[in-house]
Design a protein that fits this description.
The complex is a heterodimer of chains A (302) and B (326). Chain A is mostly helical and 302 residues long. Chain A has a domain of 197 residues: Orthogonal Bundle (MetI-like fold). In chain A, a hairpin with a 5-residue loop joins strand 1 and strand 2. The longest helix of chain A is centred in the middle third of the chain and has 37 residues. Chain A is elongated, with a radius of gyration of 24 Å. Chain A starts with 15 loop residues before the first helix and ends in a 6-residue tail after the last helix. Chain B is mainly alpha-helical. Helix content of chain B is 77%, strand content 2%. Chain B contains 13 helices and two strands. In chain B, a hairpin with a 2-residue loop joins strand 1 and strand 2. In chain B, helix 1 crosses helix 4. The radius of gyration of chain B is 24 Å and the shape is globular. Classes of the chains: A mainly alpha (302), B mainly alpha (326).
């Protein structure tokens, strides 16, 4: 300590939300990841308007253009920046559409799993006792098996289809959320404001979802971000193995699988570029998730 | 100790039983077992005979008893594709998978521990940072994609190793293994690396965290103050102390290695039981799927049981906690 006291600067009143955003932006890498995530999401949403062709409209495909390497020109004078597949499909368009499929499946599954897991975890922590034991036993049993295995077996029983993949992903993932929410809810449950809310005679549902849940959200947001990346990877793996989405609505994983047979003959671009798209998506989401974890974790707060 | 052992064994039995019931519900109550378990190409007489053998003509609770009895005897029905007992078909491919999993586990430790220790000794150096970046990639990238890239680089572009298959095998104690011949090793190296990458990333993180924690301890300072060479401090004092968590985690991860082999075996056309599962799913060979499911549950429960018991034998704290609880 030096002799002269520092002039006390009045702390500027910034909301926790804004503080978290500023903390987040402190890492350029994470900011770059966030920009990428937004761009990828926009590309997926506006796929029909930004792609050079609709890859699944057979009228727009020219079989003469099949297996062209990246940068080739088509008969119609269009440039295939990422080459074409064996049916003359522009890989760039196919990738954007595949990305769209991957994100739809992973996003829907994550939202559903989040909802179910959140409710189960809150109920377990709030009521405790039997309900807690029962729910957590199921969670433990499920988490003791690798996600890929559970999903494979489910799809073996359910069959193929976009909806079935989503169901499998939800069943695989809800347990992570349940465990996360329960962990933070057990701590929050002891706080006075819960006792106060109960003392006011509010219903259990209201206390759980309006008072307890909002205070358990930060760790949940982190887990959800990481789990979206996991869901995308898992969906890609399942589709690659041929038990995921149907051939008519390919995701990135299925595009990679389709190009796999051409890989060995040297037509690497059919498989590699969808893979690169998958890679960028997953890494970008993970960068955001990592930074969110640092920002939202009170223990790491400076 | 004996009480703990028995209780743990009871829990394992319950876990297997619960899974068996879930499979029963999935196959018999939700699905139609006649369609699922009897070959759709069977003649009417074969169908009736199979139905009688599996008790499908009796009430549901009796069916459960028959199903459970068959399960205990290891009878999962007959594979539609191979015409052989479903369990036998799987067990035939078990050695290939186990060999791959063990080699991958070995690779994960032999490469992961040194890399993790280096990253832990120089956390801010370029080398340490690159190792960590690599381990993050190993974690987040899908396994099958890593496998494809390995094939593309080492099999297609460089042509050093074959792109898939198991190659020739050598007989060892009645089992056919790959690691004894040069050609077999060449076939095995890529799939083994692929299967090892994820676990290697895990080992690197564990070893790095362990090293960073251990080097601040007093006994390390003491060893250095004694004038021991840096080499000896790292190789003996640090290494010994970080191996405990690494070995524990790897024991637990062996099961998930067998599960992940499904992906690796499919990418590299490795004839193990994971590839058999995918083939069976695509060919709707359901008895094999059910048999695989029950076998993998059994393996998982067994591994968990062994790890827990070893834990209580090795770690006095676990033992004392139990004594306190009694």
């Amino acid at each position: 300590m030096t002799g002269t006291p520092q002039p006390a600067t009045a702390p500027k009143a910034i909301s926790p939300m804004r503080a978290a955003m500023l903390d987040f932006a402190a890492s350029r890498l994470a900011l770059g990841g966030l920009v990428l995530v937004v761009l990828i999401a926009l590309a997926a949403i506006f796929a029909p308007w930004i792609t050079p062709q609709n890859p699944y409209d057979l009228a727009q495909l020219d079989i003469m253009d099949n297996n062209l390497p990246p940068g080739s020109e088509s008969w119609g004078g269009m440039t295939y920046w990422l080459g074409t597949d064996n049916q003359g499909r522009d890989m760039l368009s196919a990738i954007v559409y595949g990305l769209r499929m991957s994100l739809i499946v992973a996003g829907t599954a994550t939202l559903c799993a989040l909802g179910i897991g959140m409710a189960a975890g809150i109920v377990a922590a709030y009521f405790g006792g039997r309900a807690d034991t029962l729910i957590m036993r199921v969670v433990d049993l499920q988490l003791s098996f690798p996600a890929i295995l559970v999903a494979l077996i489910l799809l073996a029983i359910l069959g193929k289809g976009v909806d079935k993949v989503i169901i499998a992903l939800v069943i695989v993932q809800w347990a992570y959320y349940a465990r996360t929410v329960r962990g933070s809810a057990l701590v929050e449950r002891q706080r006075d404001y819960i006792a106060a809310a109960q003392g006011l005679g509010l219903s259990h549902a209201r206390v759980m979802f309006r008072h307890l849940l909002p205070n358990c959200l930060p760790p949940l947001i982190v887990v959800a971000t990481v789990q979206i990346a996991q869901a995308i990877a898992l969906e890609a793996t399942l589709s690659f193995l041929g038990v995921g989405v149907p051939v008519t609505e390919p995701s990135l994983g299925l595009l990679i699988a389709n190009g796999y047979s051409y890989l060995l003959s040297g037509n690497y671009w059919i498989s590699v570029y969808p893979g690169v798209a998958l890679l960028i998506t997953i890494v970008a989401i993970n960068l955001v998730g990592d930074q969110l974890r640092d920002v939202l974790n009170p223990r790491l707060r400076r | 100790m004996v009480a703990y052992f028995l209780r743990r064994l009871g829990q394992s039995a319950v876990a297997v039983f619960v899974m068996a019931v879930l499979v029963f519900v999935g196959v018999y109550a939700i699905g139609n077992p006649v369609d699922i378990l009897i070959n759709p190409e069977a003649t009417e007489r074969e169908r009736l005979a199979a139905m009688a053998r599996m008790g499908l003509d009796r009430p549901l609770w009796e069916q459960f008893l028959v199903y459970f009895g068959n399960l205990l005897r290891g009878d999962f029905g007959t594979s539609f594709v191979y015409g052989d007992s479903a369990l036998a078909v799987i067990l035939q491919r078990l050695p290939a998978t186990l060999e791959l999993a063990f080699v991958a586990l070995l690779l994960a430790v032999l490469l992961g521990v040194p890399l993790g220790v280096i990253a832990g000794l120089y956390p801010d150096g370029l080398l340490g940072r690159s190792i960590m970046a690599g381990s993050i990639l190993g974690f987040s990238l899908p396994n099958f994609w890593q496998g494809l890239m390995l094939i593309l680089i080492f099999a297609v572009f460089l042509g050093w190793v074959p792109a898939g298959g198991r190659g020739p095998t050598t007989e060892l104690f009645g089992l056919r293994v790959s690691f004894l011949s040069w050609e077999g090793l060449r076939h095995m190296i890529l799939p083994a690396i692929n299967l090892a990458l994820f676990k290697m990333a895990l080992v690197i993180r564990l070893a790095r965290a362990g090293t960073r924690e251990v080097i601040t301890q007093d006994y390390i300072k003491f060893a250095r103050a004694k004038g021991l060479s840096r080499r000896r401090v790292v190789l003996v004092h640090v290494l010994k102390n970080i191996m405990i968590p690494v070995v524990t985690i790897l024991g637990l991860e062996l099961g998930s290695m067998i599960a992940f082999a499904v992906v690796t075996e499919t990418v590299f056309a490795w004839p193990g039981m994971g590839k058999l599962l995918i083939d069976s799913i695509n060919r709707l060979d359901r008895p094999v799927i059910v048999a695989y499911l029950m076998l993998i549950v059994f393996i998982f429960v067994l591994i968990n049981l062994v790890v827990d018991i070893l834990y209580s034998v090795l770690d006095p704290r676990v033992r004392l906690a139990q004594r306190g609880a009694q």
